[in-house]
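Hi W.,

Here's what went into the run:
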Amino acid sequence: MAAKTSLMIEVSHLTKVYHTGDIDTVALSDISFIVKKGEFVAIMGPSGSGKSTLMHILGALDNPTSGTYKLDGQDVSKLTKDQLAEIRNKRIGFVFQAFNLLPRTTAIKNVALPMLYAGIPKNQRIERAKELLREVGLGDRMDHTSNQLSGGQMQRVAIARALAMEPSIILADEPTGNISTTQSGEIMHIFQQLQKKGHTIAMITHEPTIAAYAQRAMHIRDGKIYHGEKLT
Amino acid sequence: MELIELFSSAVEALLLNKTRTALAMLGIIIGIGAVIALVSLGQASQQAVQSQIQSLGANLLTIIPGAIQTGAVRSAAGSTTTLTLDDANAIMSSPQVTAVSQVSPELSRRSQVTAGRNNSNTSIIGATPAYESVHNVSIAEGSFISAQDNTGVRTVAVIGPTVASDLFGTSDPVGQTVRITGIPFTVIGETVSKGGSGFANQDDTIFIPLNTAQKRVFGLNYLTSIALSATNANVMTDAENQAGYLLLTRHKISDPSQADFSIFSQQDILGAASQVTGTFTALLSGIAAISLLVGGIGIMNIMLVTVIERTREIGLRKALGAKDNWVVLQFLIESILLTVSGGIAGMVLGIILSYVISLLINLPFTISFYAIILAIGVSGGIGILFGWYPAKKAAALSPIEALRYE
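Here's what came out:
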């Protein structure tokens, strides 16, 4: 386990360059920032700003070209594919814009999926999945398949799934992008509740109204952070 | 890892698109079905040949004269006159020959036979009472040649059912008279049909006492063959060696390769016959195996399509922590499930097919354990072989690309 630190995310001089043929595209250039434990941070920026690339690196889905990324004190910028898979499984909880639930699969099975890859026995998986679904207010819809749920309900299942392995950080990528405004408010309340319980949350969004639910916002443009203002 | 979970998710994935699953299996079903049907029919025809040869007599050894070498000239087996009744008696009475229970000296010739206005060209076998048990002859009516018939040089005959119908039509042959080379014989019995075909039709035969054949009909003092019954199936080789050694001594031949007789067993005939049916079975199975190969390629095709269709799902699973091996295993189990269930369906098809064909062409119906192992083993192997590439391809997908894929 990592050394005790008050920092959950520690990014220094992070650069990501994509090679497409002969053209090099700099998606992130020399980014440095920190996220403290228990913080709720919004990462804002227009499309093409590099915020998705940053999200991929923070989510251990991709390796940076240079620079370091420490998650809860552990350097994850130079790990192998399988080690990254393990980090994603145990340390990161993803919430996607498009929900990304398994189709025709019950809410319980969706929530239990990360625990399956962690090798947790079936009984425990089911128990924990039920508990998490009750927590996000879906206690009466546990056996519904994803196509029987509304957008807001699907996102709640996704949040429950993100919490399944008690991750170090919850990474949300435009979590309200595909759902109605009224349901967006409910989802954002859930995130606020989670923060109060001590979870660290990083959320990508381009909507200021959604970013307003976070404690602070970081603005990214052309692969650079140009200010990180304190919101509350 | 949780194989049950992988297995049940594979079942779910396959049930999702039933038509496609069924069509993908079809190649395997036809391939396995054809292989099993052909293999079991091959085995059935082998058994049929085997049982027919067994019906010629249990633990039968046959000694035929021949193969005398005079200088560089080696005459054809069966063309010489080196076997005598004394040889047969010596084998029976010799204390060295322990593995032989019965000896049947035989003189066989083709001849014209007549009864009233009917006549027929058939094989005449001069036989002793031992012939009946050595060759498994069953009597339908009357009796076989007795020792008294033989010693008394009587003109009695036992006829096969084909001869009976040729000469006497539907009327009872026993008690009637047949003329062999002009000599009248009284029919004392008729044998049961063996359904003989192929190299020796035993139904088209007339048996007369050996002494009568040698002394009165053909005027010959030699034998055309000596048939031996070994005491049991395990001492066939002993019997062959003992009888062979005795005859070599009696014929004063020191070098076994110069023997003026040859001994062959049912196993020798069986071996030759099995080789023929075996070759045909292998050839036909080979053709059926090609359809298996085509079926396997079909499976690979479907699995590749499935991988592309489920790119998002694969990306999600990897984002949630599925390692590459897990993804490989997931798709591999799916393709194995596809081929093994196709293989089992093909096995059922093949068994039904060979049952129907065996009914149609009157062969014994057999299901070999080997066929079942083949169905499951080979189809599972095809699943691994042709599922491997798509599964690797799925695992190699980058989770980011996979999640972005629409």
